[in-house]
Every structure is written in C-alpha cells, then in structure tokens.
Specification:
Length: about 190
C-alpha cells in the first residue's frame, strides 16, 4: 500500500541519516591500542575456560527417563540406548552432542554437565523445556581464547558501536521532544490550493 511504501521510505531515510551521523561522529574516534587491549581483556575474562563433549538421551517423561537410568546402571551401553530411545536428532550418533561450552546449553543441562566427571552420567533425569535428559560427560578440554590479533578488527567494531551508542544515549537524555499535534496553518486568503 501507499502508506507502507511511505513508511519504508521514511525508515530508509532515517537509517541513512543515522549512518551519516555515525560516520561523522566516529571519524576521529578510532579506538586506541589501550582501548582495544582493555576490551580484549574484558571479553577474554568473560569467556568460558572449558569445553565439554557429552552425549544425552532425551525422552518425554521423567518415568521413562528413570527406567532408562536403571537400564544404564545395569550396564547397558549409553550409545545404544540413545539410538533406540532418544527423541533428539543426535540419536543417530548415539546421543553425541560434540564439543560445546556451557553457555550454549539451557541452564539445567549446562549445570548438570559441569557437575559430571568424564565417563559419568546423571543418576537422575534433568528436566529442560525440551523434555527429560540423561547426560553422560565424555571428556573436557581447555578452551584457548582467540589471539588478540585475530579479533582486533572485531574489537574495533565493538568499541566504535559502543562509542556511538553512548553518544546517542547522551543526545536522548538532553533532547527536548515536542509531541503536541498542531494543525497545519490555514492558507492565506487569495492563495490557491
């Protein structure tokens, strides 16, 4: 519709104005080496230090999960039970989820994995929004952070985006917005419409 087209054009115009303002404001605000190093240290400190490789069996009910835990305790192979019973796509690989960091998993699952030692499986099922899991930790490994040089360009983008966001936030705090609707002035006598 005409209204949608006008709104789209206005949105594009505002995006162009924002891009121009961003380029003008950031022109002489390139991050210093000190800022880049500080951002790198902050991001590295927040990164997980360990990766986990685990298998899981996902089922719909706690009762069925309990039954499978008993089966595993009696010596059933985890991979075989996963292939036979899991509802998850990983069942084809015997429940193998590959390598992951805890922040990539829902909290109850991540907490359970972190509490296990390699070779152990959860003795009680873990509930998540996806169902009930039995989890076996295969192995862990130290996670090396990326080198400073490999992420330097991305760090520059992060710092520049933050500088511009802070600038816009400052403008918004001091902006005076007049949202009163006033009628357009009436044409003067003798003006043609």
């Amino acid at each position: 519709t005409q209204t949608d087209t006008a709104a789209l054009i206005e949105l594009q115009r505002l995006n162009i104005l924002q891009q121009a303002l961003s380029e003008k404001y950031l022109k002489d605000k390139q991050p210093t080496e000190k800022e880049l190093r500080a951002e790198y240290e902050t991001q590295v400190a927040a990164m997980p230090r360990q990766e986990y490789r685990a298998r899981h069996i996902l089922v719909a009910t706690e009762q069925f999960a309990d039954k499978l835990v008993r089966e595993l305790k009696r010596g059933a192979k985890f991979e075989d039970v996963a292939r036979r019973e899991s509802m998850d796509g990983s069942k084809e690989n015997g429940g193998d989820l590959g390598w992951f960091t805890p922040d990539r998993m829902v909290k109850p699952f991540a907490d359970a994995v972190v509490a296990l030692k390699p070779g152990e499986f959860t003795q009680t099922p873990i509930q998540t929004p996806y169902g009930w899991h039995i989890i076996r930790l295969e192995e862990t490994r130290e996670l090396e952070p990326p080198t400073y040089d490999s992420v330097k360009q991305r760090l520059e983008q992060v710092i520049l985006a933050r500088k511009f966001r802070d600038y816009v936030d400052g403008l918004m705090k001091t902006a005076k917005v007049d949202n009163r609707l006033e009628p357009a002035p009436a044409p003067a006598a003798g003006d043609s419409a």
